[in-house]
Amino acid sequence: MDNNRQKNVQTVAVHVDSQNVTGFGFVAYTNSRVEKLRDEGRYDAAIKLKKYLRKFLNYLGKNEVPFKDFDALLMRNYHTWLKNQELGRNTISLYIRNLKRVYKLAVNDGLAADCNPFEGLDVSYRVKKYRYGLTLDEVKRLRDLDLSGESEMTVFARDIFLFTVYTKGMRSDDIFRLTSKNIKNGQLTYRQHVTGKEISLPWELAMQEIADRYKRKGSTLLFPVITAKSPHEQWIQYDGILHRINYNLKKLGEKIGLDYPLNLTVARHSWESMTKSVSISDLL
Questions:
Q1: How far apart are CA 210 and CA 68, in angstroms?
Q2: In this protein, which residues make up the domain named Phage integrase SAM-like (predicted)?
Q3: How distant, in Å, are the alpha carbons of 80, 115, 231 from that of 85?
Q4: Which of 28, 33, 57 is nearest to 45 (CA)?
Q5: Nearest to 271 by CA among 129, 158, 163, 143
Q6: In the 3-class helix/strand/coil scheme, how is the chain assigned residue by residue?
Q7: What are the angstrom distances between the C-alpha of 160 and each of 59, 151, 202, 205, 220?
C-alpha cells in the first residue's frame, strides 16, 4: 500500500474510532466521508450524504454491514425496497448512486473488494419533461408584480431572481459574495466560487437599483445577508436564506400562473434557454 493510501486509511480509522463503531464496514466508512466533507467545509454535501446513509440504515435495520457482505444481492434488494417506498425514479437513482460513489472511494482506499455490487442496476438520471426557464414575457410579469403588502423576504426573493437573470445566470453563492469592489468602470467582474473562472459583464442600471435597496452601512457587500464569521455558520445562514428565497419564489410563480415550481435554478435556466436570443436591454 503506497504512502498516500496508507495515510487515507489511517485518517478513516481515526474517524471510525471517534464514532465508537464496532467493526469496520461500509457504514463506518461512509460516516468517515461525512466527517471529511465537514472538515473541508462542504457542509451541504455532508448533510446530503448523511441523509442517503440514513435511508440505507432504515433498510438495513442494523448499524453496520461489513464490506464482504456489501454485494450485488444486497443492492438489488435495497433497490427493490426503495421502489416499494413509492419514491420517484430519479430519487431512487440518487440514493443508489451515492452509495456507489462511497464504495468506489473505499475500493481506492484498499478497504473494499474491487468488484461491482451495483451491476445491472439502472441508476441513470432521467431528465424531467417539464419546462425549466421563463419566457421574456414571464420575466417581465414577475418584474412588474405588485408586491405591496408582501413580506420583505418575498420582495428580496423576486429581486434576487431578477438579478440572477440580469447577470446571465449568476449563482446565488457568487451573488452573496459580491462587494462594491466587483463594480468598476461600468463592469461587474467576479470570479466564480465553484470554477474559479473570471466573469465580466456590463453593470446595468436595473442591477444597481436592486443593489441599492439592500445597502447596509458598514458593509461593502451588495447583498449583506451572510454575516457570520466561521465557514460553518456562513453555510448555515446561506442554506437558510436559500430555502426562504425558493419558498417565496414558489408562491410568486403561482401568482404569474406557472405550472411548475419557481426557484433560483429556474432563474439560471431562464438565461440559458431564453435570453440567449434577446439582449439584456429587452429584459430591463
A1: 57
A2: 26-113
A3: 9, 28, 36
A4: 33
A5: 163
A6: CCHHHHHHHHHHHHHHHHCCCCCCCHHHHHHHHHHHHHHCCCHHHHHHHHHHHHHHHHHHCCCCCCHHHCCHHHHHHHHHHHHHCCCCHHHHHHHHHHHHHHHHHHHHCCCCCCCCCCCCCCCCCCCCCCCCCCCHHHHHHHHCCCCCCCCHHHHHHHHHHHHHHHCCCCCHHHHCCCEHHHEECCEEEEECCCCCCEEEEECCHHHHHHHHCCCCCCCCECCCCCCCCCHHHHHHHHHHHHHHHHHHHHHHHHHCCCCCCCCHHHHHHHHHHCHHHCCHHHHC
A7: 40, 14, 17, 15, 18
C-alpha cell at 71: 454485494
Taking only the tens place, the pLDDT of each residue in 32-52 is 999 999 998 888 889 999 999
Cα 25 from Cα 57, distance rounded (Å): 13
Extract the C-alpha cell encoding 85. Answer: 417506498
For the record, the C-alpha cell of 163 comes out as: 438579478
Each residue's pLDDT tens digit, 105-163: 999 998 988 888 998 888 887 655 555 678 888 889 999 999 999 999 999 999 999 99
Q: How many CB atoms lie within 10 A of CB 232?
A: 11
Residue 92 to residue 122: CA distance in whole angstroms: 10
Side-chain half-sphere of 9: how many Cα atoms within 13 Å? Answer: 15
How far out from the chain centre does Cα 275 lie? 24
Q: For residue 36, count other CB atoms closer than 10 A to its CB.
A: 18
Residues counted in the chain? 284
**Cβ(198)–Cβ(274) under 8 Å?**
no
In single-letter form, the type of residue at position 25 comes to G
